[in-house]
Structure formats: structure tokens, C-alpha cells
Design brief:
The protein is α+β, with helices and mostly antiparallel strands and 312 residues long. The protein has helices at residues 12-21, 31-34, 86-102, 124-133, 156-168, 178-193, 201-210, 248-253, 255-267, 289-296, and strands spanning 3-6, 42-43, 46-50, 53-58, 60-63, 66-69, 79-80, 107-110, 136-147, 171-173, 215-222, 225-235, 238-246, 273-278, 280-281, 286-287, 301-311. The two termini are 20 Å apart.
């Protein structure tokens, strides 16, 4: 049997030490990242013990009778170290459902960590949900990922813009100047989608101060003007583009292509994957074909970001 305990602030060191060694975790699950917006979500993360040993952890929040993978994160299933076995996880999900029913929950939303972020395969939870929870696929988003060691060729339009960048003298700098990039990002999102970044500049600067080696800012300059930029999250063997935007001049002169050329072929050629994120609306029911085509033109192909649901 497992002992299931709800996370409290006293568990921070224990939690973070476990996340650091888990085979399917990223720095997004460190408490200094999860808790920066603690006021927005009612945390109900769980720790699972076998005897006195911490077996696994589950980042989650509650909303009345709903228990869900943490809404402040893109994904967040059961985090497991290399010692966790399939039979243990099957038992764990059986006992998790009892715990949730006993605490008044009636419905579960579960977002497993996509396989590209696994240091070692870690899909025991998918099997356990299928067997013990009768979980159904509720939502499927199409993420676009480049396998960096395959070097699929860029399409002609990206190669042409990269040539423009070289001729224009676009300069790419990993300068961490978030404040120079954010106005470009905000204007781009306002004009294209009538929306704002999920993070404010102040929030991103706070997170950057907490994770200086994992949150990286690359800006593209023409003379001294920022014409484009990408905010990257470095998560082990995966480089994830969290935000990207160009000005009209940046698009014309190939700012994005210049940045990707530098990170893919120079600075992060040692990584296994570059994740562009998803290209969907309405929970995956609408595909933004122009956006995903733009990503696939760099050599990206689809990895699914899934959400499962079951009732208790």
C-alpha cells in the first residue's frame, strides 16, 4: 500500500530533490516555478510513499469536485524516478482513485508528460489509467518537434529568409534582454491574435532570476534595433520555444531563421529535440494550418499533447 500525502510548503526540498532525479520531469515542476502563480490555483499536489521512501509525486490542483493536472503547466502527470515499476503504478492509480473519492472529488483531468521530455521511457501512467481508471482521451493537441540529429532540410522559404538575414547583417545575440524583446512580442500577439502573453514581463523576469540557466533569451538585431526574438526553455535534452515574435522588419529580413540557425546548428546541436509547441485552437478541434506549416517547414513533425478524463 501507498501512503498518499498532500503537498505543503514544508515538503519543498523533498519535492524538488525528487523532481531533479525523476526520469520524466522538467524544471517546470520545481516549486519555484510552480508556485510563482500560487495565488491563481488551489494546489493539491500529492506525494506517494512506499514505507518511508518517496516513490513518486503528482503536480495537481483542485477546483471544487475537480482534481486536475496543474492548470498552470502545459503538462503534469505522475513524475517517476528510475526505480518505479509498472505494477507499482497500477496499484498507485487504484489507491489514488480511492483517495480522491474520499476527499470529495468526482472528476479527474490528467495531462501526462509528452514522451519527448522523458529522459528514460515513462508511460506507466498511461497503462494504469487505461486499466484502473477507464480513462478516455478528452483533448489532443498537435505539438511540432524537430529531431535535431536528423537534420531534415528547411523548406525553400525559410532558406530564402535565412539568406536575407545574412545579407542584411542580422545579428543574433543570447543576451537575456527580455525587456528589449517583450514590446515586440506584445505588439505581435496584439496584431495577430488580439491577445497577450501568458506571462507578463515582470513574471518572466522573476522566473528568469530563479532559473537563469534554463530560461534563455535570444534576440535578433538590425543595427541596435530588436527585430525579433525567442524565449527558450532548456529542459534537459529538449529546447522549447516558449515565446517567439518578430517585427515587420524582422519577418522581412529573416530574424527567426537567423535565430533558429544559431540555436539548432551551433549553440544546442547537442540537444535531441527542439519543441515549437502546439498549433491548435478549441482544445485540438481546430488546426492552425498556417502556423503548423511554418513549423514543419523547419523540419518539425508532430508529437501529441494529450489530456485524459475519468469520473470517480
Amino acid at each position: 500500500m501507498f501512503t498518499i500525502r498532500r503537498y505543503t510548503a514544508d515538503d519543498k526540498v523533498l519535492w524538488d530533490n525528487y523532481v531533479a532525479k525523476a526520469r520524466n520531469a522538467t524544471f517546470l515542476f520545481m516549486r519555484d516555478y510552480m508556485d510563482y502563480h500560487a495565488d491563481r490555483f488551489h494546489d493539491h499536489s500529492l506525494l506517494f510513499f512506499k514505507g518511508r521512501r518517496l516513490h513518486s509525486v503528482l503536480p495537481a490542483h483542485e477546483d471544487e469536485a475537480l482534481f486536475a493536472s496543474h492548470a498552470g503547466l502545459t503538462y503534469g502527470g505522475l513524475l517517476m524516478d528510475v526505480n518505479v515499476t509498472t505494477a507499482e503504478v497500477v496499484q498507485l492509480f487504484d489507491e489514488l482513485c480511492v483517495y480522491l473519492r474520499d476527499h470529495g472529488f468526482r472528476r479527474v483531468l490528467y495531462k501526462p508528460v509528452p514522451w519527448v521530455y522523458h529522459r528514460i521511457p515513462a508511460e506507466e501512467d498511461l497503462y494504469a489509467m487505461f486499466w484502473k481508471c477507464n480513462a478516455r482521451l478528452l483533448r489532443r493537441m498537435s505539438g511540432t518537434v524537430i529531431a535535431l540529429d536528423e537534420h531534415l532540410p528547411w523548406r525553400k522559404d525559410h532558406r530564402r529568409r535565412l539568406k536575407n538575414a545574412l545579407q542584411t547583417g542580422v545579428r543574433v545575440v543570447a543576451d537575456d534582454a527580455l525587456d528589449r524583446f517583450w514590446p515586440v512580442l506584445e505588439e505581435n500577439l496584439r496584431m495577430r491574435f488580439e491577445t497577450k502573453p501568458v506571462h507578463t514581463l515582470q513574471e518572466m523576469e522573476l522566473l528568469k532570476s530563479r532559473f537563469p540557466s534554463q530560461i534563455l533569451q535570444y534576440n535578433a538585431y538590425v543595427a541596435d534595433e530588436v527585430v525579433g526574438g525567442i524565449t527558450f526553455y532548456l529542459m534537459g535534452h529538449v529546447l522549447h520555444g516558449q515565446y517567439s515574435a518578430t517585427s515587420s522588419l524582422g519577418k522581412e529580413c529573416g530574424a527567426m531563421e537567423a535565430i533558429y540557425q544559431k540555436v539548432i546548428f551551433d549553440d544546442f546541436a547537442h540537444c535531441r529535440y527542439l519543441d515549437f509547441g502546439t498549433s491548435n485552437e478549441q482544445g485540438g478541434l481546430v488546426l492552425n494550418e498556417g502556423l503548423i506549416d511554418h513549423k514543419e517547414a523547419y523540419g518539425g513533425r508532430t508529437v501529441c499533447y494529450d489530456t485524459y478524463e475519468w469520473t470517480l
